[in-house]
Here is the input.
Amino acid sequence: MRIPLWLALGIIIVAQAVLLWNEASRLSPTYDEPAHLVAGLEAWRTGRCDLYDVNPPLFRLWSAIPAVVGGAEVPMLPDDPANVPGSRTEFKRGQAFLIQYRQQGMQWLIAARRMNMLWAVLGTLGVFGLGLELTGRPVVGLLASLVWAFNPNILGHGILLTGDVPAAAAGAWFSFAAVRACRLGTWASAARAGGWLGLAVLTKFTLAVLVPLLPVLAWLARRSSRPWLPPWPRLAMGCARMVVLLAAAWIVLAAGYRFQGIGRPLGDFQFISRALTGHEGQAMRPGNLFRGSRLSRVPVPLPASLVQGIDNQWQDFDHPQRSYWRGRWQVGGWWWFYLAALSVKLPLGLLAMLAVSAPAWALRRPFWAACLLPTLWLIAVVSAKTNMNEHVRYLWVVLPWLSVMAAAGWDFANRIVRGLLIAGTAWVVAAGLTCWPWGISYSNELVGGIHQTWRVLAGSNVDWDQGWIAARRWLEDHRAKSSPPIFAHRPSPGVLEAIGVAYTEPDSGLLDQDPPVRCRVLVSTQDRLENAAYQAWWPPVERIGCCIEVYEASSEELAAYAYHLVQLHPPLP
Here is the structure.
């Protein structure tokens, strides 16, 4: 008996939602999340999007609604450098928010995560629609939606208060709407596609680089819609619809910023990036390359906060960041980093499906326009910024397109191919379920799984402070007075407050005790990678979750690290 299409898709969505809902309360606050939450609060309270302007505001505005309704306020800093170009106070304010509201702040963050997870569910629907629109086969859409929904990276990042998964979901819907607009050839369908493009850019600036690819869709439209028209009128109609698409995208984008700062003269901006100040080799010196030129009076048709945010983001790219690959740290990165990292972070089942389905997506123009070219273009753009080879999550925007291409081989009606695609899909689903809720740390079998990812990658690819709730549960199991003293390398300020772990500065009398006593030390994987001194303690005597390592050391050894440690106190029964 065949399962109805709507029921199969509903089962996928419900299973995905249940996993994400429960995961939201299992992970401690990651590095960026408190900053995004207070930026969303600030936007609701003041009507401005200046805080955390290197990311657009849509997902923050949506996710911050529970905290706004609950009466949360954005903490003010005593040394807040307001209106100073390049000031990035969102991270300090985020930590101050957790310290001020403590466990209530964590509850608001969990609620924000559960709001944000709806983007991942929306992505499941978008991937299904794109697969169906490109092939006309519901099974292709179902396989693609399964690969997306249970991808370990989507299960891991789908609840985080960041823009990566929302951008991927909006990008999937834009591709679906654009392909549909090409087929229908109507003004309304072009406007809908433009609306989704505007929403996509409102979730992540990276998706603005899709705009140069729009002529490819016009070329596709000339072939697909109104075939009775001569070629040139057909092309003209396609270009006209492209203008409608861009106009709709601009309206949605500007509305997301409440039309603030639209038309501001280019010369009135205060920039800090080298590209827009013209100050080569001088970091953070404000200026404006266009001031005093003929372009100075040109009105900028974009929101002022968006322009300043892009400038701040480019300023980040001016300074090489530390990069890590296979045990090696260096300042600056490698052009091949993201390609290599994807080979580690993507499930082998998905990679196998892409290989099996290659003839289906490589030889068809609709797949080129809707999936392949956007994927290659975005990977190239992100890889070009070698000063910041750090977060593979920047490329989660391509996962909807990879999922659809992976399922496209079903169109061959070949039993062997279909059997391989079913096996690959099962592999992806199994990978997602077996590593849940630690999908942030996922790596495929070539590396060895979540506990071995650190051998290849670091940072948000492995340990982003998400493991401290598991550490709290571990502490609850060590209530006995006979338990040795427990210390931890300091997590981000506010994290222990938010999850309800009691801590103090290290007891100097204990550290100076003679004879020394044995102690236990909790060190996150990222802290171990960044501090060579901890390497001498390897291997850990125990692991907590995916990324908290437990070591044994004497109080005499710990005395040298006292500045970097806090003493943890197991809760009373």
